[in-house]
Write a structure and sequence with these properties.
Number of strands: 11
Low-confidence stretches: none
Number of helices: 13
Helix content: 40-55%
Strand content: 5-15%
Shape: globular
Strand order of the largest sheet: 1-10-9-8-11-3-2
Mean pLDDT: 96
Length: about 350
Amino acid sequence: MFFRNPRRSPYTAADRAMIGAEHATQARAHFAGHRAYRPTPLREVPGIGRVKDESSRMGLGSFKALGGAYAVHLLAERDQEGAPFVCASAGNHGISVASGARESGVRCVVYLSHGVPETFAQRLRALGADVRRAGDDYDGSVAAAQRAADEHGWRLVADTSWYGYTEIPIDVMRGYTVLFDEVGEQDPRPPTHVFVQAGVGGLAGAAAGYVRDRWGEEPVIVVVEPEGAPCLIDSARAGKPVRAEGAPTTLGRLDCLEPSLVAFRLLEHLADAFMTITDRQAEQAAELLARHGVALSACGAAGAAGLLALDDADRAALRLGPDARVLLVGTEGPVKPV
């Protein structure tokens, strides 16, 4: 499924106040003194484009290392003796929150749905997190984490947002902008096209805000989702955040049926197009990238899958020609079995 965004409009001062290049500068300054921080590689893949390879990010294996930990650090700086942190996760966000909590010396509880691989639970426990299973999907684990925060007075660190809960998720997204700021240093040529995968839309929203602030209105931004979890494309069609019907998908870290409110507020007018891919297309993209030395999971290769899935008409509509400079985000490395 491919959908050109009829509500596309320019980046505004209000957008910049939420997500912009200055937030990336602030987040990079924060991480500069972190022992594990270093820019991740920007890899050129023939016939595809440049892939920002996040598989080694801060030893945690995904771009999420920049988000949850950043929000936790900011909260801990404001209140070092504060209550425990709690979050829900499809895997990587929880690892980031748990890492930040351990560095801050604060207890952390992470809720995983029953479908999250045990590999992630083991990694979380190794970081000192109290891991609890709740819900049949990501949204179920979010609800459980929210209930626990309300019942116990814990500090909720979510990577999604809703009415009345936006400040912390915005900090999470601001952490993600670091990776795009690194791209700007690694290659001075601005991208002509950015394909970015999405679950609730936090990374895609961060990409849209940063790209528009730094490189303007010209780059074409395409948001890529699993066809089994199309919450952003459905919301874009509806012109408001909606819950998607959904279907089973193996792309677990992208399996989200409700968009993040603040992410959608950016994407509804800053993204040029939305599209969905099949699980098999994501797997094939990961296999192709691996042959070029870029080892990612199918979720990590989903943006590339979107690029490769376009037909000639869609490529023409996006002005995707032989001189295009495509930027992709390889969001996570391969997920190792237990």
